[in-house]
Structures are given as C-alpha cells and as structure tokens.
Amino acid sequence: MHVRPFLVRASCELNVSQSIYTHQFDNGLALVAESMDWLESAAFSLLLPAGCVVDPREKLGVSNFTCEMVQRGCGGRDSREFVEALETLGVLSSANVSNAHTSFGGAMPADKIYDALSIYADVVRRPQLPTEQFEDARLVCLQELRALEDELPQQLMAELRRLHYGDPLGRSREGTFASVEQIEPADVEQFFTTHYRPNGAILSVAGKIDWERLVAHVGELWGDWDAAELPTPSELPPQRGYHHVAQESTQTHIGIAYPNVPSSHPDFYRARGAIGVLSDGMSSRLFLEVREKRGLCYSVYASCHSLRDRGSVLCYSGTTTERAQETLDVILAELHRLGDGIEEAELDRLKTKIKSLLIIQQESSSSRSGAIAGDWYHLGRVRQLDELNRILDNLSAASINEYLAANPPRDFTIVTLGENPLETPLGVPTANT
C-alpha cells in the first residue's frame, strides 16, 4: 500500500498547534486525522453515504432500521458480545442517521482506538443482521416515532425541514409508522449491500494517535472494501409558504425557515455572524426582544442549517396559544430588522464567544473528530484554527451589513403547531400540509 500523507502544522492566536493528516484510499475511503498529543483519549467518526435521502420512498426509515440491525451482532460476535467488547475497551459509542450519512462514533482511551476500529470494521462490513432480532429492531424504530409524537418542538422542526427543503432533502430519519411496518429483512439487506460502501465514506480520528500505524491499520481493515456505484435520489420541489398543523394543546410552536448559503460558501461566516447577533446567547436580539422584554415565550432561537450544496436559517419559538400571534409578529419583525444591519458591539460579543468555543473544542477528541469529518464532507479539506481565527478577526459589522443588504431574510416558510392557525404577513402564501 502506497501512503501519501498530507501533514499541516499550524499555530494560531488561539495558542493551539495542529497536526492534520489525510489519506485517500484507492476505493474512495477518506481517512482524516488530527494528532492531539496532550490528550490521553482518542475518538473516531465514521460517515457512510447511507443517509435517509437514499431511502426508497415506499420504505422510508430503512436507513435507520439498517443502522439498528448492523449493531445486533457483527463478525463473530453476537449482539451481547458486541456490546461487551466495546465496554471492555471503555468505548463510549454512538450511532446516528442524518440526511446524508449513517454515522458511527466512539471515544476511548487512546491505546484502544485500533481495537475499536477493528470492531467497527465488522459492523459496517460483516454485520450478522440476525432475522430473529428483526422484530425487536422494528419495535425500537417504532418507539422512536412514538417518542417524536410526544416531542412537539421536534415534530414541528421536522415538518419545517420537510416542507422547506422538499423530498428527499427534508426527510427525517425515522420514516413513518406505515413505512416502518412494511420494511422486511430483504429491504435491510438490500440497503446494506447498496449503500454501506467506501466510496464517499469518511473516517476521522482525533486524539493521541500514531499516524503511520493508523494508516496501516485502516488499510488492513478497509483497504480491500469494494466500491460500488451509488444511486442519486431524485428531488421533489419544496412546499413553502404558511402551514398549520392542528394540535390540541395550550401551547403553540412556531417554526420559520428561509434560504441561506451553505457552510462551504465564501459568505458563510458573514451569514453566520448575522445569525449569531440574532440568536447566540442571552444578549442576542431574539432573546432580548421576544423573551426578556416582552415575556412572550419560554424558548426562542435561530440557527444556520447546512446541507452540502444549500443552506437555510431555521428559527423556533414555543409559546402559549394566547401569545402565539404576537410572538410570530415580533420574530418576523426582528428578522426584517436584521436585514437593516448590525452594530460592531454586537459582533464583538459574538467573536469572543465563538473563540471560546473553539478553544474548548480543542480539549475534546470527540468534538474534533466530528468537526474534521464535517469539514471534509462539506469542503474537501480540514479548516485550520488559525484560518478560522483570521476569518473571525476579519469579520466586521460593515462586511456583514454588506452581505445582509444583498441577502436580507425573505422567502419564508412558516409552520405553526397548535390549536389555532395564525395570521401571516403579505407575501407568505397559505398552503395545506
């Protein structure tokens, strides 16, 4: 195996030195690592191109079902032995299905990372998929759907993403009760065979590592994994406008979305700076105007949401039925006011907070493994902390205001969930969900 490592060493004003390594295997698997020698831990994130966007439309939730099944025994270990093996190594494990990926991760003492990766090579290459546990796995997936019914804020935001992005980009991993009930073992086997592939997969490792040993070990585990052509799902147009979901409740949940640049766009940090002023922390505009000054709600926030080639700003507020209309009106007023620009003092507070978060992230191998995997997926490279530091230092109210003048909040998708529909401003058409 010919190894072509790419090493970058960088120091930045955040007083952190970085060693970033990358290697692309011939089958398409990307290995990205950051050496953090001051830690005694290591963590990995394995992203497979098996997100819910590639679920067949008649089998929604099969990616989530498959994720559950591959962890019920792998290689020569049954389900219990798999769990015991991870616990013996001290691995704090995780698994998740998102829009684009099925991901597996773990954090552990640094010297256990190689054994943990060996176990997860069995998970994603040699799962047992035991048919005798299939109905138990279905019950787990159905319980996740039932839990979502009880979490009205999550239910609202799932509906907001579905309507704003359209299908399949706005899907939720859980699928529906009807679709999960229809999934058969052959569907899981087909999904696994088709989508658990190395091309498009990303393995990121962060912590106290030996890069040369890591490359050789990953090559032994995954180097002979066969690539395959991955299907591209077709897209249906979004259903934007105003939608109301009737729900007997004393509360009303409000969701607002509008288009934004993705994280790979050169203007992303100008957009991120604007949304930070709007919503990051207790000195942000939304918190002060909607919650503190007027006492309209118990929760309010806005955040940047990014897919690979498009993004949005997602806003949420939970309030009472009586105060719902005023809450919606004030949030929309704040969004329109954001288009008029921000002040330098607001930005200075945000910069300090973001730099603090970057420093804290450097103390966590789990945070860094997730961050560098995300960078590789969205950008095809890992951003250095000195690069982020320069971007933050170069942000100014003037540069953000220039961006906002050209890209003011508009083209809203609004979803409310509660007893009564609300009145919406002109220009936001009402649609049926």
Q: How do you describe this structure in short?
A:
The chain has 433 residues and is α+β, with helices and mostly antiparallel strands.
Description:
This protein is of the alpha+beta class. It is 42% helix and 21% strand. The strands form 3 sheets. A 7-stranded mixed β-sheet has the order 1-2-3-9-4-8-7, sandwiched between helices. A 5-stranded mixed β-sheet has the order 10-14-11-13-12, with helices on both faces. A two-stranded antiparallel ribbon has the order 5-6. A hairpin with a 5-residue loop joins strand 1 (8-11) and strand 2. The longest helix has 18 residues, at 344-361. It is globular and about 60 Å long. The model is unreliable at 1-15 (pLDDT under 50).
Indicate the topology.
Blueprint: E1 8-11, E2 17-24, E3 30-35, E4 41-48, H1 62-70, E5 73-74, E6 77-78, H2 79-89, E7 92-97, E8 102-109, H3 113-125, H4 134-150, H5 152-165, H6 177-182, H7 185-195, E9 202-207, H8 211-222, E10 242-246, E11 251-260, H9 268-279, H10 285-293, E12 297-306, E13 311-320, H11 324-338, H12 344-361, H13 365-379, H14 385-394, H15 397-406, E14 413-418
